Amino acid sequence: MGIVLKYFPIMGAAERVRLALWLGEIEFEDVRVPPVNWAELKGQTPFGQLPVMSIDEGPYIAQSNAMLQYIGTLAPQLCPADQFLKVQEAIGLVDDFERAFRPCIGIALEPEKLGYGIAPATSLLVKDSPELSETIKALREAFLLNELPKYCGFFSGMIENSEGPFLCGAEPTLADCCLAPALERYTLGYIDHVPKEALDAYPAMKLYLEAFKALPQVGAYEQSKS
């Protein structure tokens, strides 16, 4: 079976899929699409977006969570039958976490999709304006103050209830492939107004990331990128 995964040369929406494939020890071709090639590829994708996956040279499959569920059929240890609902619940919570941060990114990339610059009252909040920059800063700081501690509390409780070190117990699952890269974003220092020390106030989350990164398959994946 030949699996080809295509996404931009960033973590983004494909990272959970890459990690699941590595944890499942499933061979695949990890195609990193340069932005300059995206226009040519876009029309070939089901919904005009990446990531896409093809299996045995078949048609492209879209949606990262659909890909995850498929990987779970190939590597059932990543979604054990007796933990199916717990794994799905955890994935849903991670998706809520990601959704809570999405306006913090969307406002910088496409402010008009959030209503800025459309109505007269928001006419000053257009891309690259000082007013929009201040709004971006305030929105991200509010996320760090309100949403990050809330979700870190949820995840910490989930790990504690499962007796860890992972979301659903002693072994990693598809849910951890989702949470680990979502958390790592807050340690890299590449997002304006989100310091790389953002997780320092949540030691349980730092321990969780350390446990995930210590997995041999994750280590092998990291080495493959160097």
Query: Which architecture of the largest domain per CATH?
Result: Up-down Bundle
Detail the poorly predicted runs. Answer: none
How many domains would you count in the coordinates?
Answer: 2
Biggest beta-sheet profile: 4 strands, mixed
**Beta-strand level of the residues, as a percent range?**
5-15%
The helix/strand series, from N terminus to C terminus, equals EHEHEEHHHHHH
- Strand arrangement within the widest β-sheet reads 2-1-3-4
Mean pLDDT: 95
Query: What is the level 1 CATH name of the largest domain?
Result: Mainly Alpha
Helicity level, as a percent range? Answer: 40-55%
Strand count? 4
The number of helical segments is 8
Reconstruct the topology from this structure.
Blueprint: E1 3-7, H1 15-23, E2 29-32, H2 35-42, E3 52-55, E4 61-62, H3 64-74, H4 84-109, H5 130-162, H6 174-184, H7 203-213, H8 216-224
Parallel strand pairs: 1-2
Antiparallel strand pairs: 1-3, 3-4
Helix pairs in contact: 1-3, 1-6, 4-5, 4-6, 6-7
Structural notes for this entry:
The protein has 8 helices and 4 strands; from the N terminus they run βαβαββαααααα. It has 226 residues and is an alpha+beta fold. The mean pLDDT is 95. α1 (15-23) packs across α6, α4 packs parallel to α6 and α6 crosses α7. The protein has 2 domains: 3-78, Glutaredoxin; 81-215, Up-down Bundle (Glutathione S-transferase Yfyf (Class Pi), Chain A, domain 2), CATH 1.20.1050. The protein is 52% helix and 7% strand. A 4-stranded mixed β-sheet has the order 2-1-3-4, covered by helices on one side.
